[in-house]
Amino acid sequence: MIFLDYASATPVSEAAKEAMAPYESAQFFNPSAPYLAAKNVRDDYERAKSDLAHLIGAKGDDLVVTSGATEANNLAFSALDLVESPTVLVLETDHASILNTAKKYPTELIRVDRTGLIDLEDFQNKLTRNVAFVSIALANNELGTIQPLAEVAQIIKRERMARLVAGDARPLYLHSDASQALNLVPISVARLGVDLLTLSAAKVYGPKGVGALYHGHNVKLAPIATGGGQESGLRSGTENVAGLVGFAKAAAEAKKHQTYNRKHYEKLRQVLKSELEQSEIAPLFLGNPKHQLANFCPVSFPGLDAERLIYLLEDDEIYLSTGAACAASKGEPSHVLKAIGLNSREIAGSLRISLGAENTEDDMRIAGQKIITAIKTELARK
Ligand code: PMP
Q1: Is there a single domain that holds both residue 197 and residue 237?
Q2: Ligand 1 centre from 179 Cα, in Å?
Q3: What are the C-alpha distances in Å from 122 to residues 112, 236, 369?
Q4: Lowest pLDDT segment from 56-65, 80-89, 245-254
Q5: How far apart are CA 146 and CA 279, in angstroms?
Q6: Is the whole-model pTM more than 0.70?
Q7: Same domain, residue pair 245 and 309
Q8: Quick check: 327 and 334 in contact, CB under 8 A?
Q9: Are 152 and 290 found together in one domain?
Q10: Of all protein residues, whose CA lies closest to atom 8 belonging to ligand 1?
Q11: Which of 100, 179, 295, 330 to mutate to test the pocket of ligand 1 (most atoms within 8 A of CB)?
């Protein structure tokens, strides 16, 4: 099996599995229970939270642990609960959990260019006085495009100053979904200048169903689940101790190997690209590698039906996808590919290839050749 869809899911690393195991058996205690054994579990939970927060230059208290990135994104928008008639700006290529949540508010979409990079001029033009919330993913989940968030934060800072001078008290929060980025991009909330940041364990070789939202001290959030008051009352429910411990471990490992992994994936991607260049239909590589996660290799073979290619490749035990797994399962054309201006032939022929820990150079050669063979089969059928 050659798995080329790590943007949709990563296997739990051995180190994370090992770290999680005690909390699924001997240390199963509820961290809120009164006896010492449970208090120790509480300490381990808080330590894991601090460790995770530390990786992004934050403190444990700045994080709310959630059931994943979707919930963290939803919680981020609760910052708007206390703002009167807020307007929201979101990047048009962002994940459904952002775009669909933004629909609750008057929203404007920020445009991207042909490589998926934010159009900063369009952003500046749309950043009017009513805007209270801006959400821009650090890295896109279909193209891997990494956004210049620090530049965005500078523009936001200027707008905040202008509001201050004008005596306008309307808040302006910057949120970023860093689910895909955490694995390969060094993240410091201070350097990025964000007020809110979403993290996901499922994309960094941690367990599924675990995420976190970083929130700066200036941001007031509303509870996403009320009950026993866990997570500072913002997300009640018995803590997922094993999940958080696994997340912290997996994220720490990812950070430790980041520099090596970036180079490694760049090399693998180059090998794959060279193979694909030999195709009868010239590949159209999407995104700009200079601003792209090193493990992403989205590519279009215009005129082909990518879904048919995927089924053919599945017979060879090569797994890849057309777009974000959730959008692809609905059979809708990707809003991301539309946003970067691909025509319908280019969209229909698009594959989302994303590399990960188990891939080797040989895999790239084999997968490349199998993709070319599948393309030949498709061309012969026409
Ligand atoms: N944001 C991004 C950028 C993602 O890639 C994903 C997962 N595809 C999500 C949010 C949603 O994550 P989850 O399913 O863990 O809630």
Answers
A1: yes
A2: 6
A3: 9, 39, 41
A4: 80-89
A5: 28
A6: yes
A7: no
A8: yes
A9: no
A10: 8
A11: 179
Q: Is 177 in the pocket of ligand 1 (CB under 6 A)?
A: yes
CA-to-CA distance for 240 and 232, rounded, in angstroms? 15
Q: Tell me what pLDDT residue 332 has.
A: 77
Per annotation, catalytic residue among 15, 325, 326, 357 = 326
Q: What is the distance between the alpha carbons of residues 64 and 298, in angstroms, rounded to a whole number?
A: 33
Same domain as 113, residue 36 = yes
- The closest residue, in CA terms, to atom 10 on ligand 1 is 69
**Per-residue tokens: 139:** 């890295």
CA distance 206 to 68: 11
- For residue 215, give the H/E element and its range: strand 211-215
Number of domains comprising the chain: 2
Short-list 321, 332, 330, 246, CA closest to 7: 321
For the Cβ of 56 lying below 6 angstroms from any atom of ligand 1, the answer is no
The verdict on the CB of residue 141 being under 6 Å from ligand 1 is: yes
Going from the Cα of 206 to the center of ligand 1, the distance in angstroms, rounded, reads 13
Tell me: do 316 and 197 sit in the same domain: no
Domain that holds residue 57: 14-256
C-alpha of residue 73 to centroid of ligand 1, in Å: 9
Active site residue 326: yes
- Index of the ligand 1 atom closest to the CA of residue 71: 16
Alpha carbon of 69 to ligand 1 centroid (Å): 5
The predicted model gives 171-182 an average pLDDT of 98
Q: Are residues 88 and 198 in the same domain?
A: yes
Q: What is the CATH number of the domain that holds 325?
A: 3.90.1150.10
Q: Which residues make Cβ contacts (< 8 Å) with residue 82, sequence separation at least 6?
A: 220, 222
| Tens-digit pLDDT profile for residues 191-235 | 999 999 999 999 999 999 999 999 999 999 999 999 999 999 999
Residue 331 has pLDDT above 90, yes or no: no
Residues 99 and 182 in one domain: yes
User: For 95-129, what is each residue's pLDDT tens digit?
Assistant: 999 999 999 999 999 999 999 999 999 999 999 99
